Structure formats: structure tokens, C-alpha cells
User: Which sequence fits this backbone?
């Protein structure tokens, strides 16, 4: 059966569907442009066309400036990071409401493969869970199935960070479980990846502590609530650690 | 609805689902269009093509998701079988039937996901919200597709 079995058939079938649908997903890049042009055409008469074109150019330059700033941040991070990385653009969100993932425009042709760590200038984003030649899917840190071996930076207490499934989430967040119940955790303490497990390198910022409580089921550990460092609502460019 | 139109419809619906922004003011929901397409096919087309469309739509959704491949296809397939079986007792022109069909199809994915992966009961409220939204989208899709069929004929 196809259900979640990582066999060659389901992998190839998924690849076929991804390659079939990707051109349509990429068509979405053009719609905001078309809509704004239409709006501008309605709002303005012939005499104001030139002015509108200039306004649009200013907007485009502003967008280019913002993009330049983000890419500059990524570049400076790339220069200071000890990892070999590949920069990728986010091309789409998860098609389902029940999973948290993004699609990026780099794939096996760029040297990416499963379980590579993904981050941006703010912090850890997630890991790659499926790859085609030109696209990859990244399971976000806010998904409960993305588990990261984590470390509280000040107290050096280890634990496992993962996303939370709640009824409604107005902002993405995670929980770090299996933290020593006697640990003196404070709000605002940074949480970093511990490097255990081999997927995520040590020292990448995951987020900051926003609350803690004893585990409700066992009482043996603390559950520490984390506000992710990366803004998962506005992901545009990310970096993949290839080595 | 011809096969070609169905395939294009699935591709456009998938593209919309992945590209439209997440509604953070509604707790991070994303609008689903594929359940509407599956419900429309199940209440309009013959049984076999309707089920084929449901399976194709499910596989396409899984291809653009971190879900295990086949989960949505199974859910949409079961939903399509159920709806085509009940078609004689369902009046497809009634808005509440359309909304119910879309909501059922959307909810089927959540229920199957729940059984396959083991989600917590905390998602029930979100499930109801997603299903309600899909129901409204389905009603609008029925109106749009029926109107298109009336204008362009049975393409």
C-alpha cells in the first residue's frame, strides 16, 4: 500500500505528481502582478498611467531592496557559518491543513537529499523529508513529527523540541519535552540544537523559552514551551546544510 | 466534466491550496479546494470516473504535503464511494447537501490522518472549522461549476 511506505514505487509516484503540479503552483507567482496591474488600470485614466508605472517601479524596487536585505543577511550568515549550505526560495506551503511543511526550489540536482537541516538568518526551520530533481519538501519545526534534539543554552539541560498540535494556533510554537524536572529554566532562555541524532548540527538557535510546567502525564519531566526564533508565517528564503 | 477539465481542475485547486496565504486570524487555517472538486465529481459524474478523480486529487494533495503518500487519496476515495452510493437519496441541488458533501470529504482526511498517524483529540475543533470552511467552498464551487456547465455545455 502507498500509505507512508518509503518504497521506490510510492516515491516515484509522488515525484510524478509533484512534477505534474509544480508548473501550476509556480503560476501563482504571476497572479499578484496581474491583479495589481488590473487594479491600477481601473483606478487611473490615461493621463495617470505614467505616474502609476513609476509607482509600480518604486514598489518593485522596494521589494527588490527588501529581498536584497534578506539575501544579504543570508549571505553574511553563510560567510560566518561553518557549514556548506545551499540557498533556496520557498515556492509553496503544505496543501493539507494537518501537516506543516514548505516546498523549496532546490532538489537532488543541487545536492540535496533527505534529512538535511534547513535554517535561515533567524534560526532553525526544519528538515527535508522528500526530494525531487528540482524541488524539495521541508517539514517545519512546528510540525509534531519534526523532532529536534535540543539544549537549553544557559542551563545546558537537554531535551526534545517538536511542534504542537492544538485546536487553533494563532502563532506557531514548539514544546521541548524530557527536560530534567529539577532544572531551573527561566523565561527568555535561548534553546539551541544539541547536535545529537546527526540531522541538525549543534548550535543552531531554535527559539526562546516562554513557559514551563511539569509533564501532566508522568510528572517526571518538565515541558518547556518555546517561541521559535524563525518567523514561520513569513518564510521566503532558507538555507539547507549540505555538509 | 471531461477528464481533461477534471485534471486541470485538480492542478489548479492544488496550486491554490499551496499558494494562498495561511489564515492566521483563524488559527492558521488554509482553505481547501480539492474536497469541493471531489464532492462535485461524486455528486455529478458516474461512479468510476468520480472515484478516479477522488484518488487523483488525494494523491496530488499528498504530493504537495508532508503527509504519508496515499492518506488523502484513501480518505477522498472512501468519501467518493460513500457519496456515489448515496446519490439516489441526495438532492445535489440543495445547498446544505453540497456543504455537507464538502465538509464530509474534508473531514475524512482529518479522520484518516488521525487513525494513521495518531493525532490528539485537541484537533477536533480545528477539524470542524476546516470542514465548515470546505463546506462553504463546496457550495460556491457547485454554483460556479454548474453555471459554467450551463454556459459552455457538457464539455
Assistant:
Amino acid at each position: 500500500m502507498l500509505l507512508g511506505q518509503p518504497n521506490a514505487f510510492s516515491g516515484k509516484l509522488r515525484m510524478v505528481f509533484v512534477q505534474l503540479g509544480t508548473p501550476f503552483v509556480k503560476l501563482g507567482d504571476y497572479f499578484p502582478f496581474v491583479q495589481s496591474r488590473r487594479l491600477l488600470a481601473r483606478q487611473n485614466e490615461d493621463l495617470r498611467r505614467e505616474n502609476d508605472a513609476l509607482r509600480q517601479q518604486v514598489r518593485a524596487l522596494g521589494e527588490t531592496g527588501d529581498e536584497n536585505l534578506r539575501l544579504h543577511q543570508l549571505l553574511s550568515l553563510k560567510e560566518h557559518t561553518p557549514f556548506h549550505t545551499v540557498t533556496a526560495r520557498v515556492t509553496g506551503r503544505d496543501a493539507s491543513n494537518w501537516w506543516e511543511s514548505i516546498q523549496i526550489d532546490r532538489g537532488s540536482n543541487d545536492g540535496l537529499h533527505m534529512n538535511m537541516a534547513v535554517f535561515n538568518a533567524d534560526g532553525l526551520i526544519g528538515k527535508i523529508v522528500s526530494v525531487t530533481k528540482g524541488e524539495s519538501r521541508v517539514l517545519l519545526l512546528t510540525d509534531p513529527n519534526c523532532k529536534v534534539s535540543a539544549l537549553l543554552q544557559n542551563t545546558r539541560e537537554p531535551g526534545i523540541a517538536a511542534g504542537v498540535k492544538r485546536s487553533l494556533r494563532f502563532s506557531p510554537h514548539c514544546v521541548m519535552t524530557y527536560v530534567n524536572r529539577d532544572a531551573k529554566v527561566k523565561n527568555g532562555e535561548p534553546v539551541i540544537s544539541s547536535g545529537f541524532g546527526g540531522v541538525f548540527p549543534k548550535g543552531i538557535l531554535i527559539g526562546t523559552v516562554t513557559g514551563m510546567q511539569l509533564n501532566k502525564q508522568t510528572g517526571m519531566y518538565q515541558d518547556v514551551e518555546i517561541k521559535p526564533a524563525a518567523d514561520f508565517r513569513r518564510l521566503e528564503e532558507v538555507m539547507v546544510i549540505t555538509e | 466534466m471531461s477528464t481533461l477539465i477534471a485534471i486541470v481542475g485538480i492542478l489548479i485547486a492544488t496550486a491554490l491550496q499551496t499558494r494562498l496565504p495561511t489564515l492566521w486570524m483563524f488559527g492558521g487555517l488554509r482553505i481547501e479546494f480539492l474536497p469541493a472538486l471531489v464532492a462535485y465529481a461524486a455528486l455529478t459524474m458516474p461512479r468510476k470516473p468520480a472515484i478516479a478523480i477522488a484518488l487523483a486529487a488525494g494523491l496530488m494533495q499528498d504530493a504537495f504535503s508532508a503527509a504519508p503518500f496515499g492518506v488523502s487519496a484513501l480518505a477522498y476515495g472512501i468519501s467518493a464511494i460513500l457519496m456515489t452510493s448515496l446519490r439516489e437519496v441526495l438532492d445535489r441541488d440543495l445547498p446544505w447537501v453540497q456543504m455537507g458533501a464538502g465538509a464530509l470529504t474534508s473531514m475524512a482526511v482529518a479522520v484518516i490522518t488521525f487513525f494513521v498517524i495518531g493525532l490528539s483529540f485537541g484537533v477536533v475543533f480545528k477539524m470542524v472549522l476546516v470542514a465548515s470552511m470546505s463546506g462553504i467552498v463546496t457550495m460556491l464551487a457547485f454554483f460556479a461549476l454548474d453555471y459554467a456547465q450551463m454556459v459552455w455545455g457538457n464539455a
In short: The first strand of chain A starts at residue 85 and ends at 93.
